[in-house]
Amino acid sequence: MKKKNILKNRDGFTLVEIIAALVIVGILAAVAVPKYIDLIDEANNKAVEGALAAGTSEVAMNYAKSLLTEVTTDDSLTDVAAACNTDLGDFTASYAVTDAGTGIDVTITAPASIIDDVAAADLTKEVVLE
Q1: Residue of 103, 99, 100 lying closest to 81 (CA atoms)
Q2: pTM (two decimals)
Q3: d(Cα 13, Cα 73) in Å, to the nearest integer?
Q4: Domain assignment of residue 119, given as a range
Q5: 5 in any annotated domain
Q6: Domain total for the chain?
Q7: Does 68 reside within a domain?
Q8: In this predicted model, what pLDDT tens digit does every residue of 59-77 receive, in sequence order?
């Protein structure tokens, strides 16, 4: 009869069970949080690469269009750069004729939260057209 009362009075978790659960949650958090941060950085880098690819594609399409529709002049690259779309979603692209005059530089700008960990050299790509 006494054994039945002992089992009946047991409510909740013991301190050891709670500490064991907290240790397991702490270990999982110690592994998951750094992995999550790495995934965010990798996603931001891939977003920058995608925006540069979109800008490069914009330049190539406009250059091909200008070759098919216009007579090529010395100002044709300037016209191509001016005709390119600058809105790339979260990113803004700027286009400038290279110093050598053989292509167009595509430069990407975005909110600091996206490009904070990206090297400045990775934000510009030269598209050689001639």
Answers
A1: 103
A2: 0.70
A3: 82
A4: 13-128
A5: no
A6: 1
A7: yes
A8: 999 888 888 887 666 678 8
Residues 86-130 have pLDDT tens digits of 888 889 999 999 888 888 999 888 887 777 767 666 788 888 876
**First vs last C-alpha separation in the chain:** 97
> Of 99, 95, 13, which is closest to residue 54 (Cα–Cα)?
95
Residue 43 lies in a domain: yes
Examine residue 8 and state whether it is found in any structural domain, yes or no.
no
Distance, CA of 95 to CA of 15 (rounded, Å): 64
Residue 57 has a CB neighbour count (10 Å cut-off) of 13
- Burial (CB count <10 Å: 0-12, 13-18, 19+), residue 78: middle
Q: Where do we find the tokens 């700027």?
A: 94
Cα–Cα distance, 43 to 49 (Å, whole number)? 10
pLDDT in tens, 6-61: 556 667 889 999 999 999 999 999 999 999 989 988 888 888 889 999 999 999 99
**Structure tokens given for 14:** 């013991």
